[in-house]
Design goal:
Blueprint (H helix, E strand, L loop, with lengths): L5 E2 L1 H13 L4 H19 L4 E6 L3 H15 L3 E6 L6 H9 L3 E4 L9 E5 L11 H9 L7 E4 L22 E5 L2 E2 H4 L3 H5 L1 E5 L10 E3 L2 H4 L17 E5 L7 H12 L4 E6 L4 H7 L4 E4 L3 H8 L4 E4 L7 H11 L4 E4 L2 H4 L5 H7 L5 E2 L3 H7 L3 H4 L3 H12 L2 E4 L5 E3 L5 E3 L12 H14 L4 H19 L7 H17 L1
Parallel strand pairs: 1-8, 2-3, 2-5, 3-4, 5-6, 6-7, 7-9, 10-19, 11-12, 11-14, 12-13, 14-15, 15-16, 16-17
Antiparallel strand pairs: 17-18, 18-19
Helix pairs in contact: 2-3, 3-4, 9-18, 9-20, 11-12, 18-19, 19-20
């Protein structure tokens, strides 16, 4: 099973037009879309009073279909209009509606459920008038709003809120594939649960996909009966100084738990005793000079550097020295910030097997202006990966992983419990541990990020970073069973 694609509005429009050109009339597609929404509503709600709010375009046309089908099933349904139908297909569907119809107004009778069929993914203007009033009202309608295609006010192209105001839906039914507006914040939150309905548009190849096991599980590096610890990969993690050692140990434990056969913390002399007191299965080796660091890392397949490394010329020199070895690097935190004033120096040292894992602040330091200049963070991450010549994982509620060749994946399920100190260090260890086992760096970043988030979802409230490596046990067991 292939990973589900995420489409731009233009790609979705092209898929619609291709289906129509191939002989499926637009009204047939509209009937299929409306049927999918009506079915989703019937599956989740008991019959009740439903107000379907229909805008002037094809989104409104879908709404008329929903109203007709629910009324046919005995539900109490009325349509509230925001403008007159403006397309041939929406006019045709409005003509088939024989029920109660009235303009949107604040004094209309209340409903138990509201269906937002005002505007679709292509909206480019702020909501106004009664549409704006309704968007504000949905703040207090929790559990009672279903959106068609995308919550009105959300840009399907960027996930932004056009004009700062959008409908807050609990369920959104979209068609064929998710759009960018469904997976990037704040649009993702405004859309609530997103259900994707198949309306017969066929395949639509895209280099942007949802991150999940379908993307990488077939190539996950499980051991076999002949495996031994060295065959499972060697990972090194560079420790900070005496008072900054915990982050490296978190990364090391993450790498060990994800399956790397041998994990070594490379420690400055000042930190040796502290690290030695806390390490068991993880090995420890001292280094003092860059040459000794390179020698210590020489046999590793992957190295993590950056967690609590210190924003110092010494850290910058260590990154450069390790880059010359050809070992795959996972650069996090201080290993990125230290190149704030000289990103070109960093990019020159990197290769396609390396992974950068910045949060937005670190991203801005290394790729100044990209986040603000781009239409959305997916494009920013893609441009960053091309500029760096390495994989870039842009952390956030909607984490994006981008490869230099243009491939990109988005974590579509939220994991708010990851907002805790040290969780990013474990993520770096997960990714590097998978790379050490021979996994492609882009897929390792995708897999590590998904497993990391799934650990947090399974734990829930009270999560701290130290919990994450142990939680990976259950996630890995489920993945192993799924992949058999």
């Amino acid at each position: 099973m292939a990973a589900p694609e995420i489409l731009t509005v233009a790609e979705m429009t092209a898929a619609d037009q291709a289906a129509i050109a191939a002989g499926t009339p637009g009204q047939v597609l509209m009937e299929r879309a409306g049927t999918a929404v009506a079915d989703a509503i019937r599956a989740r709600f008991a019959p009740c009073r439903v107000a379907v709010l229909c805008g002037p375009g094809n989104n409104g046309g879908d709404g008329y279909v929903v109203a007709r089908l629910l009324k046919r099933r005995g539900w109490t349904v009325w349509v509230e209009t925001f403008g007159q139908p403006s397309t041939a297909d929406s006019r045709a569907m409005a003509g088939k509606w024989r029920g109660d119809t009235r303009p949107m107004a604040a004094d209309n009778r209340p409903a138990d459920l509201y269906v937002d069929a005002l505007f679709g993914a292509g909206l480019s203007k702020p909501l106004a008038g009664e549409a704006s009033r309704f968007a504000q009202a949905t703040q207090a309608l929790k559990g009672r709003v279903v959106a068609i295609d995308v919550s009105s006010g959300v840009s399907g192209e960027s996930g932004g809120i056009v004009g700062g105001e959008a409908v807050r839906a609990d369920l959104t039914v979209t068609f064929h594939r998710k759009k960018i507006g469904h997976v990037l914040e704040p649009g993702r939150a405004a859309c609530g649960e997103v259900v994707v309905a198949d309306i017969g548009l066929g395949t639509t190849p895209s280099p942007l996909v949802e991150n999940g096991p379908a993307l990488w599980l077939e190539r996950f590096p499980w051991p076999d009966a002949a495996s031994h610890k060295h065959a499972r990969g060697r990972l090194a993690v560079v420790s900070g100084e005496q008072l900054s050692t915990g982050a490296a140990r978190l990364a090391a434990r993450g790498g060990l738990r994800i399956g790397a056969g041998v994990v070594t913390v490379l420690s400055p002399p000042s930190a040796l005793s502290v690290n030695a007191a806390h390490l068991e299965a993880i090995m420890l080796r001292a280094f003092e000079t860059d040459a000794e660091l390179v020698e210590a890392a020489d046999r590793a397949e992957a190295v993590v550097i950056g967690p609590a490394a210190g924003v110092t010329p010494q850290t910058r020199a260590r990154v450069s020295a390790l880059a010359r070895t050809g070992v795959a690097l996972v650069l996090d935190a201080d290993a990125l910030t230290v190149f704030r004033d000289r990103p070109a120096e960093l990019f020159k040292a990197l290769d396609r097997d390396d992974v950068l894992t910045p949060h937005p602040g670190e991203f801005e330091r290394v790729f100044p202006g990209l986040l603000k200049a781009g239409p959305h963070r997916i494009e920013a991450a893609r441009q960053a990966a091309a500029r760096a010549g390495a994989v870039v994982l842009l952390k956030g509620a909607d984490t994006v992983i981008a490869a230099p060749d243009g491939r990109a994946a988005v974590n579509v399920e939220p994991a708010p419990w990851l907002a805790t100190a040290g969780s990013g260090d474990v993520l770096a260890g997960f990714i590097a541990g998978l790379i050490a086992q021979g996994m492609d760096s882009f897929e390792a970043a995708c897999a590590g990020s998904w497993i990391h988030a799934e650990c947090a979802r399974r734990h829930g409230p009270g999560l701290i970073a130290e919990d994450l490596p142990g939680l990976a046990v259950g996630v890995l067991a489920s993945l192993h069973q799924q992949g058999r």
